[in-house]
Design a protein that fits this description.
The complex is a heterodimer of chains A (448) and B (384).
Chain A: E1 2-11, E2 13-22, E3 25-32, H1 39-43, H2 51-54, H3 63-80, H4 89-123, H5 136-156, E4 165-166, E5 169-170, H6 176-198, H7 202-207, H8 211-216, H9 220-230, E6 242-245, E7 256-259, E8 262-265, E9 271-274, E10 292-295, H10 304-310, H11 314-323, H12 327-351, E11 371-379, E12 382-391, E13 394-401, H13 403-408, H14 418-423, H15 429-437, H16 443-447
Antiparallel strand pairs in A: 1-2, 2-3, 4-5, 6-7, 7-8, 9-10, 11-12, 12-13
Chain B: H1 2-18, H2 30-36, H3 41-54, H4 62-70, E1 77-81, H5 87-94, H6 100-107, E2 110-113, H7 122-134, E3 140-144, E4 147-148, E5 157-158, E6 163-164, H8 165-174, E7 178-182, H9 183-188, E8 201-202, H10 204-207, E9 213-215, H11 222-235, H12 248-251, H13 255-258, H14 262-266, H15 277-281, H16 299-302, H17 326-329, H18 360-379
Parallel strand pairs in B: 1-2, 1-3, 3-7, 7-9
Antiparallel strand pairs in B: 4-8, 5-6
Helix pairs in contact in B: 3-4, 4-11
Chain lengths: 448, 384
Amino acid sequence: MTITKEIIERIEGEATLELEWKKDKISYAKIKFLNYRAIEDILKNKYLLDALMITPRVCGICSHAHVNATINAIENCYENSGVIINLTDKAKKIRELVMNAEKIQSHIKWFYFSILPELFKIKKEKFVLTEPFEDKEWFEAQNALKDIIKMGSIFSGQWPHGSYVMIGGVTCDPLQSDISNAQNFLSNVYEFCEERLFGCSINEFLEIDSVNNLLDSNSTLSIAVTNMREMEFNKIGKSYDRFISFGNYQNIDIPMKSIKTRPHKANIKFAEESLENSFFENKKSAFTYSKSAKYKNDFYEVGSLARLMISKDQLIRDCHRRCADSVISRIIARVKETAILLERSKYLLETIDINQKSLQTPKNIKKYITAEGMGVVEAARGTLIHRVHVKDGKIMHFDIIPPTVWNLGNGNPSNPSIAQKAIIGLDSIEKADFVFKSFDICSVCTTQ
Amino acid sequence: MKQRNLYQDLSNRLGKLSNLPKMKDDGKSIASLLEEHGVSRRDFMKWAASMTALLALPASFSPLIAKAAELTDRLPVIWLHMAECTGCSESLLRTDAPTIDSLIFDYISLEYHETLMAAAGWQAEQTLEESIKKYKGRYVLMVEGGIPSGKSNFYLTVGPKGQTGESHAKEAADNALAIFAIGTCSSFGGIQAAAPNPTNAQPLYKVTKKPVINVPGCPPSEKNIVGNILQYILFGTLPALDAYNRPKWAYGKRIHDQCERRAHFDAGEFIQEFGDEGAKKGYCLYKVGCKGPYTFNNCPRVRFNQHTSWPVQVGHGCIGCSEPDFWDKMGPFEAPLSDRLYHTVFGGLGADATADKIGETILTVTALGIAAHAAISIIKKPKE
């Protein structure tokens, strides 16, 4: 048996894959994250509302997901102590819109700057023109990112790390001109996605219900999928075929899991973090700062694929029938979700009633409460959970379960984690790197 | 007269620089790169004019800034990540690209940037080592993130050799020509250094003996990052710095003094709590915790995401993110600092106790004045 170590770059932070080989195949993989900042410890003894400033700093690429999870947790604390929190429709829409901007940004960024370059490397051929600082499409993708972020920051003030949410709503009070500006930015992103990524109008793209129809167009997505099929990528990256999502997503507002194609209700109280393999357990065999999240002791995949499997998306169902939970499904799911989020954002901007109140401070609100609360959101990479225990207005305990610990934790050889299971059995380092990146790695969220 | 001499000096310096070889020899100049991507000469000159103003130079210096921007490819730059969230890179490189700022930044030989680099793993490590050797004493180092230091240095290891972040940063700093700490984390320690600083995260200046220019902010705006490079090319020296080694052209004034809501402060019009009528009217945010009066930065002028917005514009106070140890000194963030003026180690003054522009006495008066002003306005009837 040989062991190789691979440093994974071009992600948020740095990760190491330690691969064990038997007869030219990967027999086991250890996923190491060797950076740690102890944000959960820093949150202790801070004022409850200060968490709204601190948690976004966990991650520079999903800071709005963190701030939203935190405000949900704080509002939940108040609700649990008898205060009624009433968000206006406007406040809810603005919160969702800003999160959407961040997710769309993350999806496009991942597809163009993480997935495509890796595919070129493995295929040794540049099948679409997206070379950094060379090709037009690369610059257009950058422009689309810039515009979607600007759409969000009209409401959030800045990205990353905006502070725009507060108990009872949002702090911003947009004018009609702000809404128009946001619509303008959004339409630029529509244009890019329709012309390049989807190869048809968003409405047409959303109606596509089979992979074969998807491949009819000459879009960047279909070229990438065609190439991946040629490389037989429908066979790599498969994991347990178990999915879970705890946050609100489109028509689903209760926690759901899906084992293969059968969705069931789930209960968030069974979601727990395990310290196995981490330095926190204080064992000699420990090798990483990342924890791993499990549901009733089983690993479940989170993210776009999970959400779309649970919401029974036709295209993704068809894709799953053909390629199960392989890298191809994961990639198509994220692009499909980009279209869904764009369409949803358009709807939100059209229906925001600027005459409503942005924020309604709840009555009888006490500054220094003692309570427990939990906030859940669906971030770009999957379910993000914040749990807080506050005593006399100060944080006693804060627990952050980011999406990446669901996908990228470490199990053991008899019960490997989602990403480990997907990597075991592969025959090359490039493929392992690619499968690993198909989960979209963020080491800073994973370890905090 | 003095101005003309400066102009002449800078022209001479740029003339000398332009004789140096380019970092990349692919026949492309920044001018042609910009043109290729739809940035006209006119846009470029407009951008140069705004950078000139930002750097507090007379408007007639715009052509020099434009020239300096075109010469940025004579400067090798190495960017390192320490314990951080990548937010600073996001702020500059990928979100706002391809603005002129980021195009230039990318074009200048960014010899080593972990998030962006095409090389990976062993190859990347080699690139870094080679760059440090090849450009020894000639490259500009930019570091993002706090650095777990001393006995806690194991909280961050990087690269295939498992080097600690601390030794990485030290080595790169020792051989650098100029060093910039990008973001509050590498300038002052940042979020990971907040009490109780579990990983003993330290700012860059504590791990190297060489002078470090701090460009704090969480995140700093792209203009403040690029402005520093331009300044360096123009003058070839470190910029004028304040007591915290921040360039005065960017961090010389208080947020409060440049704020778009300042008139409301002067008129005694405050938001009393989030969501009230004052919030709708865009009143001053001081009483709901704005730290603008204690924070030195140019956010109101340059804003974020290509001048789209900034926190105060969307109705949330400044949190003081470009001040040293603001996590510990400025909290609670949703309450005015004056509420606890005399209860903290720094006599409540926090960051501006040592801000060099204003004497300590005057500042105390200012801080008290602000607190008193806010207090009086409670008694004052709100305007109908």
